[in-house]
């Protein structure tokens, strides 16, 4: 355990700690601690599982017995212990959110900035997201939504990277929500008609300078609510209440896409930007509390090894009905690997 703590101290997430993996102290948020100190028993059962379509258990609130770490190597026996310290009273909660936004206020409004110094992951990120989105649109909408007026919300949009490179090509209207004003201004500029290559019937419409925990969408406006690399800033209670409000913002048959770093087990608290990287088990517990179902999930490929694994979840408010699945039917007489 001690040795693991020491190795965690080499984490590239720690500013000023120049090490062979990542000499750039700005590289942040995406970089995983080298070795997560977690309960080894839990680690065995919390391995990331890339399979799809998990039906959620009933919406019960249980105490999570998942241990975790912070970026200084401190261990917490469960999330409650950590949240009590971080957001246990209104002053602490205020500080948690202002430190989180304060971190990003000091970051340059660029792709490199919002990707924590890993600008080169933009391309594999977008292409994997696009493949996932295409699968979902084909399953959810007749003719993959091509003849429908589709509307999306890009949450924690930063400078509008996801909207510009992906969402605006598939959705007629995209709204952006981002609490850091210089990012949102950059998004407005990046998405202005003169800087866009898409036709006029695809446009960024509303730019909300608000954090997720304070946002309530207009009822029934969105086909898709996209939440990428920002939900870690929300404490568990705000995570749940955000999704509860956001569900009302979906059109009937709409869905969420959550794309996020995954802790291999437990959780990892970043003391600097006030964000939490959760494991798959942790996310599933929160989805249950939100009354959300995992319709599909897909793991990101092609990122540098030192980064956290990244997973995309498609989440629905109804138990998934698998109509018109595009998966190939397996023929019983097809040769198969003998297990
Ligand atoms: C890693 S960047 C990702 C930006 C964008 N989603 C992307 O993929 O390019 C994290 C973003 O989360 C935003 N953020 C921080 N706290 C937030 C909060 N409480 N609510 C919504 N967004 C938040 C930051 O300002 C920043 O733009």
Automatic annotation (TrEMBL):
<keyword id="KW-0489">Methyltransferase</keyword>
<comment type="similarity">
    <text>Belongs to the methyltransferase superfamily. NTM1 family.</text>
</comment>
<dbReference type="GO" id="GO:0008168">
    <property type="term" value="F:methyltransferase activity"/>
</dbReference>
<keyword id="KW-0808">Transferase</keyword>
<comment type="function">
    <text>Alpha-N-methyltransferase that methylates the N-terminus of target proteins containing the N-terminal motif [Ala/Pro/Ser]-Pro-Lys when the initiator Met is cleaved. Specifically catalyzes mono-, di- or tri-methylation of exposed alpha-amino group of Ala or Ser residue in the [Ala/Ser]-Pro-Lys motif and mono- or di-methylation of Pro in the Pro-Pro-Lys motif.</text>
</comment>
<dbReference type="GO" id="GO:0032259">
    <property type="term" value="P:methylation"/>
</dbReference>
<dbReference type="GO" id="GO:0005737">
    <property type="term" value="C:cytoplasm"/>
</dbReference>
<feature type="region of interest" description="Disordered">
    <location>
        <begin position="1"/>
        <end position="20"/>
    </location>
</feature>
<dbReference type="Pfam" id="PF05891">
    <property type="entry name" value="Methyltransf_PK"/>
</dbReference>
<dbReference type="InterPro" id="IPR029063">
    <property type="entry name" value="SAM-dependent_MTases_sf"/>
</dbReference>
<dbReference type="InterPro" id="IPR008576">
    <property type="entry name" value="MeTrfase_NTM1"/>
</dbReference>
<dbReference type="GO" id="GO:0071885">
    <property type="term" value="F:N-terminal protein N-methyltransferase activity"/>
</dbReference>
<protein>
    <recommendedName>
        <fullName>Alpha N-terminal protein methyltransferase 1</fullName>
        <ecNumber>2.1.1.244</ecNumber>
    </recommendedName>
</protein>
<keyword id="KW-0949">S-adenosyl-L-methionine</keyword>
